Amino acid sequence: MINSIDDVTKFLNDKSFKKIFLLCGKNSFVNSGAENLFNRNIDKNNIKLFFKISKIPNLDELIEIIKEIKIFKPDLILAIGGGAIIDYAKIANLVDDRPDIANLIINYSYPLKNKNAKLAVIPTTAGSGAEVTSNAVIYVDDIKYSFESELLIPDYFFLVPEFLISAPYNIKASSGFDALAQALESLVSKKSNSESIDYALKSIKISLDSFVSFLNNPNLKNASEMSIASNLAGKAISISKTTAPHATSYPFTSLFNISHGHAVSLFFENFFKFNYDNLDKSETSFDLRKRFELIFNLFDVKNINDFNSKISLIKKKAQLEDNLEVLDININQSSKEIIKGINLLRLGNNPVKLTDKDILKIISKY
Question: Distance between CA atoms of 261 and 238, rounded to whole angstroms?
Answer without folding.
Answer: 17
